Each structure stands twice: as C-alpha cells, then as structure tokens.
Request: fold
Amino acid sequence: MTDHVVHDLPASRVPARWQDYVQLLKPRVMSLVIFTAFTGLLCARTPMNPVLAAVAILCIAVGAGGSAALNMWYDADIDARMRRTRGRPVPAGRVQGADALALGITLSLFSVGLMGVAVNWLAAGLLGFTILFYAVVYTMWLKRSTAQNIVIGGLAGALPPAVGWAAASATAPLNAWLLVAIIFMWTPPHFWALSLYTSEDYAKAGVPMMPVVKGAASTRRQILIYSLLLIPLCLVPAFTGLGGPLYLTVAAAGGLVFLILAARLAASRAGDAADPRERDEALYDVRTGAKAARNMFAFSILYLFVMFAALLAERMLNLAPLHLLQGQLPLGLVP
Amino acid sequence: MSDPWNEGEGAAKARRGRSLAIALGLIAFVVLVFVITIVKLSAHVPVGV
Reply:
C-alpha cells in the first residue's frame, strides 16, 4: 500500500495563479454534484425562495470544492505518480500542500456554516457528513487500504441529491435516498470501467483499485453484477411517485444499453496485460480489447445524466408521475 | 511599475490575479450575507406591512 508522503514534493518555482486554486476544487466533478443536488432540490416539490435555493446550491458546490481541495492536499503523493493527475497544482509544485489544506478547511467550514444559517441544519449536517466522508473516510482511509474503496467511498458522491432535497424541504424521505442509492450503485461500474484502462497508473501509485488487486477478469464480472443490480433500481422511481413516463422511458431504454455494454465488457479482454509493443501509448489511448471499457465508462456518464435530466424536465414541465398502482403509491410515499 | 520584492513580472502578475480573486470573493461574500439577511427578514414580515 502507499505510504502517505507529502513533504518530498518539489517546492513551488512557478507562481500560483488563481486558476490553480480553482483547479484544486475539481470544477468538473463540482458541476456533476451541482446537477444532482439541483435535481434533488427540485424533486422535493417544496416551494423555496429562489435566492435561498441558489444559496443552497452554492453551499453544496463550495462544499464539494472544499472536499476536493482536501483530497488534492492529502493525495499529492499519489497524484505525483500517476500520469492522469501529476499535472494537478500540488504535485506540480504550483500550490503548496498547506495552502490546499487551508483552502479546503476554510471552504468546508464556510459551506456547512452558511447552509445551516441560511437554509436549514439538516441540509448542513448532511453536507458536513458528505465532506467528512469524502475527505476522511474515502481519501485518508479507504482509497489506500481496500479494493472496495470506490464502492464504499461512492457514498460521498451519491449524497448531493439528498442534501439538495433536505435544503428544500428540511426532510430526507425515502425518495431522496432512492436517488442516493442510484448514484451509489452506479459508481462501481463507472469507476471500474475507467480503472480497467488506467490500472497501470493506479498500480504504479500503489492504489489498490479493483483491477490491480483482483485482476481485470474479476473486475469485468463485478461490473456486470453491479449493472444487473443498478438497472432495476433505476426503474424504482417510476413506482414511488418520483419519476414519470419520460423518466421511465429513459431509465429503461438506457438501462438496456447499459446492460449490453456491461455484458460486452465482461466478454472482452479489457484491462488484461498489455501487448509489450503497445507500451508507449498515450494515457487514454484505447488498447486492443479495452474499447469496451471505454464505451462503458462514457455511456455510464451519459446514462446518469439523462436520468437526472429526465427527472428535472418532468419537474419543470410539471409532468405527472406514473401512478401505476391506480394512484396508490407504495411505501406511503407522497409524490 | 516598481517591483519592490524583486519577484519578476510573471510572479507579480500572478500575485495581482490572486489578490483580485480574493477581493472579489470577499465582496461576493458581503453581498451574499446582505441578500440572505434581507430574504430571511422579509420572510417574517406580514403581507401588507
């Protein structure tokens, strides 16, 4: 496993620009967090002052940025050894680790405090838990110690819809946790597909990702198993008053494609030992047999996006959810 | 412009950018607190008052 060593990173010779600090916040990840949190907020169907709704989303975004900065601070030693991440501000020496730490702590405290004062303390508590889970449980513990790192750690990335829901309604009902469960089950197939074609990078950094620890064949099988569990779960919102006809169509059709890609991946040789003649490839070049992993990774992003977009569209267009049981919703859920 | 810290043009430009970003962040924070205060206060004012 990897020993955590930050101190031997090069001292900065390049002056830090403000853009480097923005990069510490992982803006692309932040945009996905904002999107899922906003979906949760609207799905709560609770009237909310638009200014406070914007503040809630801002807090979630800043909290995600703060936890990302803490991750970049702690993982600088790992990032320096991986081609995908060695250009990040801390391992590249543009930002000092202590500065990333200070930024992360400041933004995290700010986001939770503001959420509590301006919106409500349930949302603030969930946001604080999400940040702690990502920065401490995932980054400092799971990532370096178990091949199940992204399975358990995926909870941090899954929670934003519940935070958004709680911000709107000061409650976190089963439908909010259904959105969490969908992202939670989506995470392993998504990340393992990526790790199948970047496993050499993870192995070099000593990160026990599934393909490194259990091998590519086992990872491909597990992706298929998680996909088989994920797709039925994605259909559940249509039966709980959360999703409508558009959502059901998207979830079912996309789920079918998801399963086909997972089956193709399971039957492929993606992630198997590389042909020695292909050693000098660029980072994201698609090795023979790894195209299935690449397709799976790309489609997984699209699938999650369109499902949440469908929920958003139904809320905005005020489409009625499917009341498949003649208006009676199971589990006592309120649409 | 003078360069009292002898830091070079690139470093000075980067420092100015960072300072500007901090200034804008602080201004945004003040505006945010003001707007939130107004919204929270107005929520407790009865209609017609």
User: Anything to note?
Assistant: Confidence is low (pLDDT under 50) at residues 323-335 of chain A. The radius of gyration of chain A is 21 Å. The longest helix of chain A spans residues 291-317. The CA atoms of residues 134 and 185 of chain A lie 17 Å apart.
